[in-house]
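DM from R.C. (forwarded with permission)

"hey, sorry to bug you on a friday — could you get me a structure for this? deadline for the figure draft is monday and I only need the backbone to look sensible"
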Amino acid sequence: MNAEALEWFVNCSTVADVKKVYYKLAMKVHPDHGGDEELFKFLNNEYHDALKILDGQETTDSHGYTHTYYYNHERESNIMDIIKSLLHIQMEDVEIHLMGIFVWVVGNTKPYKEEIKSLGKQNGGNKTMSVHWHSKKCCWYFKPHTYRSFNRNNRSLEDIAAVYGNKTFGHTDDSLEVQ
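My reply, with the result:
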């Protein structure tokens, strides 16, 4: 392991910082993109270690609401798996957004409908992440199966992003990049 690898998450002070660094690095060191398998495994371990350190961290969003982050290895791994699977489909005119613990698939998703739906089943639709069509927002979303919302407000995706943060994933010149 090189010295640079040991300092990937040193300057990360929030969960959002850790996730941003992780997703940028994952696209570079993933074996499917010419990276080293051992380095990728090391990155995953460091990512989870960094998140564990931030367990219980409180942040205040732009609307003044306080949120507490609770580390959950299985949930974090499932989110990563869903995003990797969605990127593997290589959908044109589609963006993938990570907002909090939800993954949103936005854009011209109709040609990919069956592939998107199958990911919810492949990833243990009844045990891990379930996939749903949001008729008002006209997009797909993946959520932890155990997630229950008691707040039925009608927030836009922009409002959700403002509250929970947003990482956007897409394709550029046939290479994957975090936007």
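R.C.: lifesaver. Confidence is low (pLDDT under 50) at residues 172-179.
me: no worries. Residues 78 and 128 are 7 Å apart (CA to CA).
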